[in-house]
Write a structure and sequence with these properties.
The protein is of the alpha/beta class. The protein has a single domain, classed as Rossmann fold (3-Layer(aba) Sandwich). Helices cover 36% and strands 23% of the residues. Strands 3-2-1-4-5-6-7 form a seven-stranded mixed sheet. The longest helix has 27 residues. The radius of gyration is 16 Å and the shape is globular. The structure holds glycinamide ribonucleotide (GAR). Glycinamide ribonucleotide (GAR) binds next to helix 1, strand 5 and helix 6.
Length: 194
């Protein structure tokens, strides 16, 4: 997708909550010579704190009501199409996309997950890591395919689990690493896979 006309790749970021990964992707998009622009944010939660970063940066955002998943996804596909979105970044989006969207955006959806995939797929990763007394954990940016947290890994970063760690301290420390690797993974993906 390297663009000869100098136009940037249009990205939509999906969120459900706090939005620190959205913030770090926005900051990355503002750097000189980058090849992306975040033109849309989709949230399934009206009160997602992360929407603040969209507002602050004048990025268009849409709330999609997920009461009926099929209707929600029909709406999402329509909005993505209307906004000429070329790449999707899931950033704490706590809904599972169905095959319909994944097929339409095949190899064009990235996700960040708070574990060293393929280990600890799904929810409550930090709790399970601590309960299992793991020495290490980490985070992974990967492509989304139709199996949960199973697509091709783009970047992964490992951190130590400290003896004194609880879910809060571990997730806080790992989140900083997530915020660092997501832009790096996006850059790597764009330069190697598009
Ligand atoms: C992040 O820790 C991200 O890895 C996780 O949600 C958090 C969102 O934080 N995602 C998942 O668990 C997806 N399965 P943020 O809203 O501050 O970016």
């Amino acid at each position: 997708m390297e663009k000869l006309d100098g136009k940037k790749i249009k990205i939509c970021v999906f969120i459900s909550g706090r939005g620190t990964n959205l913030k770090s992707l926005i900051n990355f998009s503002k750097q000189k010579k980058n090849k992306i622009e975040i033109t849309l944010v989709i949230s399934n939660k009206r009160n997602a704190k992360g929407l603040y970063f969209a507002k602050k940066n004048n990025i268009k955002f849409t709330i999609v009501n997920y009461k009926n998943k099929k209707n929600a996804e029909t709406r999402i596909l329509k909005i993505l199409n209307q906004n000429h979105i070329e790449l999707i970044c899931l950033a704490g989006f706590m809904k599972i996309l169905s095959k319909r969207i994944i097929k339409k955006y095949k190899n064009k959806i990235l996700n960040i997950h708070p574990s060293l995939l393929p280990r600890y797929k799904g929810l409550n990763t930090h709790k399970r890591v601590i309960e299992n007394k793991e020495a290490f954990t980490g985070c992974t940016v990967h492509l989304v395919n139709s199996k949960l947290d199973s697509g091709k890994i783009i970047i992964q970063k490992k951190i130590k689990v400290l003896k004194k760690d609880n879910v809060k301290s571990l997730s806080k420390r790992l989140l900083k690493v997530e915020n660092q690797i997501y832009p790096k993974a996006l850059k790597k993906f764009i330069s190697t896979s598009l």
